[in-house]
Design a protein that fits this description.
498 residues, alpha/beta, Alkaline Phosphatase, subunit A, two-stranded antiparallel ribbon
C-alpha cells in the first residue's frame, strides 16, 4: 500500500557495520536505505534479521543478558498510541480552570469516576473509566522541535536540536531486538500507521541496530472498505500455486548456492525464508489483521474511522501474540493540518480539539475497555502520549489557510505552541495501579512542581514492563562501542506501587 503523500519519507540510515556491509553488498545496502519494510518481501527482512543475528553474535557485549518476558506463556506487550505533533495537556488531562484568561481555554474540567481526578469535558468516555488508567501530569524534557522532542521520547536522545538521523534506536526496535530469538508466525513489532517521520524528519528508527529490527509497517485507513495489508496471507488457491512453483525454482537454485557456502550462512537464511513463506501462507497472520471478523457492534464501539479501527487492530494484534504495537493518531480526524500541532497559524486550537477529541475519546476508551474485559490487562500496557505539551499562554496569529477547524487565511485565531517543559501521558493495563495521578504542574500548567518525569524514565517504564534489563543491556554502535539502551532514568515506580 503506497505511503500517503502528505508524509514524505526521509532516507533510512540502514545498517552500517562493516560485517553487514561485507555480507549484503553495496546494492543491498542502498535498497535497505532507500525503502521501508513494507516495500520488501518478508524474506528480505528476515534475511536481514538472520544476518543481524550473526553480527550480534560476533559483536555481543560481554555479559549482555538475554532478557525474557515476565511469563513465557503470556508474554508482556505494549500498545503505544502516539499523538503526532504534541497534544495540549491543558485541553486533555491537565485542565487549569483557575488560570487567568491569557492561559485558560473555553472548556471546563469534568469529574471522573475516581473522586479528585478531573479531565477535560471533551473526554466524557474516558472520564467514566478513570479507575482503569493512571495519568502522569509531569512529563518534561528539552526537545522543543518535533523531531528533537520525538527522538527524546522514543530513543532517549538528549539532543535539543532537530537532526536528520536518529542517534539511538527507538524503544520498539530495541524490544524487537531483545525478543527476536524465536521464530514467529506473525511479526513481533507492528506499526499501524507508523511513527516514522515528521515532514521528512526522522522521529524514530532502528539506528545502528539495522533495518532487521524495525517494525512491519501498515499504511492506510483500516476503516476503508478497500483496506488491505500487503505481504500477509494468500487469499486464493491460484496464488498459493504460483508461490509453490516459485519456491520450487528457488530451492533448486539454493541447492547450487549451498554447495558453495563455506560459512553455514545458507542454513540460517533458509530458516528465515521458511518463516517468510509461512507468513504468506498461514491464516493466523491474515486473520489478525482482518477487522471484518469483528462483530459490527464492536467496530461501531471503537468508531468507524481511522483511529478507532487502528486501535481495534492493535487489540487484535496483541491477542494474536504480537508484543510491540505502535499506532499514530494523525490524518483526517485531526483537522486541517492533519496532526496535533495546534499553532494558531495552523488551526484554531479550540475548534480543533472540539473536532478531534470525540473521536480520540471513543477510540482510546474502547481500547482500554477491551484490554480489561478480555483479560489482557496484566500483560498488555497501553500508553497514550505525544512528543510534548502545548504552551499554557494562548497565542493569537493569523491563519495561513482555511479548512476544518481553521479560519480562512488572514483570520486571527487562537493557538498553543510547542511546550516540552510540561505534558501529560496516560497508562492503562500492564498490571499497574490505576485510578491515580502521578506528578503535577503549576497553576498555569507551565512546569512540573511534583514528580518530574523525563523521557528516559518513560522508556525505562516500558522496558520494566517488558522485563528488559535496561540497566545492563547494551548494543554496539557503528564503531563497535557498546551503547546502553538507557543512559539514565528510572521507571515510574508509582505505577506499580500501592
Amino acid at each position: 500500500m503506497p505511503r500517503p503523500a502528505r508524509r514524505p519519507a526521509s532516507p533510512c540510515p540502514g545498517p552500517k557495520t562493516a560485517t553487514l556491509t561485507r555480507e549484503f553488498g553495496r546494492r543491498e545496502l542502498l535498497r535497505a536505505g532507500l525503502t521501508g519494510f513494507a516495500t520488501f518481501g518478508l524474506s528480505d527482512i528476515l534475511r536481514w534479521r538472520a544476518m543481524a543475528a550473526e553480527v550480534a553474535a560476533q559483536q555481543a557485549v560481554p555479559g549482555e543478558p538475554q532478557s525474557a518476558p515476565k511469563s513465557q506463556e503470556q508474554p508482556t506487550a505494549v500498545i503505544l498510541v502516539w499523538l503526532r505533533g504534541g497534544a495540549s495537556h491543558l485541553e486533555t488531562f491537565d485542565p487549569k480552570p483557575d488560570a487567568t484568561s491569557e492561559f485558560r481555554g473555553p472548556y471546563s474540567p469534568i469529574h471522573t469516576n475516581v473522586p479528585g481526578i478531573e479531565i477535560c469535558e471533551l473526554l466524557p468516555r474516558l472520564a467514566g473509566m478513570a479507575d482503569k488508567y493512571a495519568l502522569v501530569r509531569s512529563l518534561s524534557h528539552t526537545g522543543g522541535g518535533h523531531p528533537a522532542g520525538s527522538l527524546q521520547m522514543m530513543t532517549g536522545d538528549t539532543d535539543v536540536v532537530d537532526k536528520m538521523e536518529s542517534r539511538y534506536p527507538d524503544w520498539a526496535c530495541v524490544a524487537n531486538r531483545v525478543r527476536s530469538g524465536k521464530p514467529r508466525r506473525i511479526p513481533n513489532f507492528i506499526a499501524v500507521n507508523p511513527i516514522d517521520t515528521y515532514d521528512g524528519w526522522p522521529i524514530s528508527g532502528p539506528a545502528y541496530l539495522g533495518p532487521a529490527y524495525q517494525g512491519f509497517k501498515v499504511f492506510g485507513d483500516p476503516s476503508s472498505p478497500t483496506f488491505e495489508v500487503p505481504n500477509i496471507g494468500l487469499k486464493d488457491a491460484s496464488a498459493k500455486q504460483r508461490l509453490s512453483e516459485r519456491i520450487d525454482v528457488r530451492r533448486s537454485l539454493d541447492r547450487l548456492r549451498r554447495d558453495l557456502d563455506q560459512a553455514g550462512m545458507m542454513e540460517a537464511l533458509d530458516r528465515f525464508e521458511s518463516q517468510a513463506i509461512d507468513l504468506l501462507v498461514n491464516s493466523e497472520a491474515r486473520e489478525a489483521f482482518d477487522l471484518t471478523r469483528e462483530p459490527d457492534a464492536v467496530r461501531d464501539r471503537y468508531g468507524r474511522n481511522q483511529w478507532g479501527q487502528q486501535c481495534l487492530m492493535a487489540r487484535r494484534l496483541v491477542e494474536a501474540g504480537v508484543e510491540i504495537v505502535t499506532t499514530e493518531f494523525d490524518g483526517v480526524p485531526c483537522g486541517r493540518v492533519q496532526n496535533w500541532d495546534d499553532h494558531a497559524v495552523n488551526q484554531h486550537i479550540f475548534d480543533a480539539m472540539k473536532f478531534r477529541l470525540p473521536t480520540f475519546d471513543q477510540a482510546v476508551s474502547a481500547l482500554i475497555e477491551d484490554v480489561y474485559a478480555r483479560g489482557l490487562d496484566r500483560r498488555v500496557l497501553v500508553i497514550v502520549t505525544g512528543e510534548f505539551g502545548r504552551t499554557p499562554r494562548i497565542s493569537h496569529v493569523a491563519s495561513s489557510g482555511g479548512g476544518v477547524a481553521s479560519g480562512e487565511a488572514g483570520v486571527v485565531q487562537p493557538g498553543r505552541d510547542h511546550w516540552p517543559r510540561a505534558g501529560s501521558m496516560l497508562f492503562a493495563g500492564g498490571g499497574i495501579r490505576t485510578g491515580q495521578v502521578i506528578g503535577a504542574t503549576d497553576r498555569r500548567g507551565e512546569d512540573p512542581i511534583a514528580r518530574r518525569v523525563g523521557p528516559e524514565d518513560f522508556l525505562s517504564t516500558i522496558y520494566e514492563h517488558l522485563a528488559i534489563d535496561f540497566r545492563r543491556v547494551a548494543f554496539p554502535d557503528t564503531s563497535g562501542r557498546p551503547i546502553p539502551i538507557i543512559r539514565e532514568g528510572e521507571p515510574i515506580h508509582e505505577l506499580w506501587r500501592s
